[in-house]
Amino acid sequence: MIKKDINVLAIETSCDETAAAVVRNGREVRSNIISSQIELHKIYGGVVPEIASRKHIEKINQVIEEALSAAETSLDDIDVIGVTYGPGLVGALLVGVAEAKAISFAAKKPLIGVHHIEGHIAANYIEHKQLKPPFLCLIVSGGHTHLVLVKDYGEFKIIGKTRDDAAGEAFDKVARAIGLGYPGGPKIDKLSREGNPNAIMFPRAHIEGAPYDFSFSGLKSAVLNYLNSLEMKREEINRADVAVSFQEAVVDVLVSRTILAAKEFRMKSVAIAGGVAANSALQKAMSKACAENGLDFYCPSPVYCTDNAAMIGAAAYYEYVKGNYSGLDLNAVPNLRIGER
Ligand code: KG4
Ligand code: ZN
Q1: Which residues of the chain fall short of a pLDDT of 50?
Q2: Same domain, yes or no, for 72 and 210?
Q3: Is residue 333 included in any domain, yes or no?
């Protein structure tokens, strides 16, 4: 039985954001500090792992101090240290894990390793106090596209995933092809508002015998072929039409598969999570489809969709309640699978 408030200091360094947060009782964000490296990686068109690790080392202490001071608290008031230990870039993860272990040891606070995707799912708990498992969650980020049954806090069953590119990866690659730069998702989202969604019919992949799996590499190739064929004919490319037609194809498969799964598994609530969950067309279409099918729909605010430490604090709290502590031998696991500890 937990008697008092539990404050988690959470750390996230799995990719290109150095982030720390203080979260009370898994749902109340007292501070959420994110130092983004996007500007540094932009010129390379994507995240450069070596630069990411180096920058995390430079920033991590300052970001943690800021998180504690923005929450008007100190380490004395912290009960648990939560940290992302996978999946992600190994060098980047190691910075957060080493830091969390050092604080845990020095301050004598329990340590909890958090799965990054479990964190994305938990982002939904922050602003939706009524949301409790079971529910269906679609996680769509730069590295993942998963349909997950959240059976209980920290208990998951993957029912579908991408066979090739992640949804965010497809957004980033198509954005690069039409000259929008990195990261492409938000730029496609914005440009799409000026385009005609019915201009180009891009393919929607269905995988025989796997109704909840996804594939985006065919769609990406179709966009590239379309761009090449226009270039060969020296015809002008309407970038907004390409952006919105591509976005429609992605949103279509994400929504239809999620609704199908919710019905099949008799779920009453659907949540979305991860960077692509910030996409305005996806939010709109999923919210509409859920309403039409009598399902409750949940989505985090954009700041909790993309990588942040508050979501790691939320997930760490529920692992803490279950007593799932980590030892000081916690290591970074770049290809950690969800549901594993
Ligand atoms: O969750 P996240 O911050 O990092 C990973 O764990 O991968 O997701 C980043 C991904 C990138 O691919 C980015 O382009 C995409 O999320 N993204 C979006 C939007 N905002 C971010 N994709 C579509 N529309 C958006 N508004
Ligand atoms: Zn992420």
Answers
A1: none
A2: no
A3: no
Same domain, 101 and 143: no
Which residues place a Cβ less than 5 A from the ion ligand 2?
141, 307
Residues 100 and 172 in one domain: no
Q: How far is the CA of 165 from the centre of ligand 1 (A)?
A: 13
Q: How far is the CA of 277 from the centre of ligand 1 (A)?
A: 8
The structural domain count of the chain equals 2
Say what the pLDDT of residue 212 is.
97
Q: How far is the CA of 329 from the centre of ligand 1 (A)?
A: 31
Asked if residue 306 has its Cβ within 6 Å of ligand 1, the reply is: yes
Determine whether 232 is exposed, middle or buried from the number of CB atoms within 10 Å of its CB (0-12, 13-18, 19+): exposed
Ligand 1 and 184: CB distance under 6 A: yes
Q: Which sign, positive or negative, has the C-alpha torsion 148, 298, 295, 269?
A: positive
**Ligand 1 close to Cβ of residue 113 (< 6 A):** no
Domain identity same for 25 and 85: yes
Cα angle 335, 336, 337 (rounded to 5 degrees) comes to 110
Instruction: Tell me the ligand closest to 299's alpha carbon.
Output: 1
In a domain, 328, yes or no: no
Domain of residue 96 covers 7-123+305-322
Q: Which atom of ligand 1 is nearest to the CA of 280?
A: 26
CA–CA distance, 197 with 191 (Å, rounded to integer): 12
Instruction: State the alpha helices, DSSP H only, in the chain.
Output: 38-42, 49-70, 90-107, 116-127, 167-177, 184-192, 217-232, 239-264, 280-292, 302-305, 310-321
First to last CA, the chain: 23
Say yes or no: 140 and 278 in one domain: yes
Query: What letter represents residue 330's amino acid?
Result: L
Residue at 109 is within a domain: yes
Q: Is 278 in the pocket of ligand 1 (CB under 6 A)?
A: yes
Output the pLDDT for position 1. 52
pLDDT tens string 280-302: 999 999 999 999 999 999 999 99
For residue 169, the ligand 1 atom closest to its alpha carbon is 12
Q: At residue 13, what are phi and psi to the nearest 5 degrees? A: -140, 35
Taking the CA of residue 88 as reference, the ligand 1 atom at the shortest distance is 6
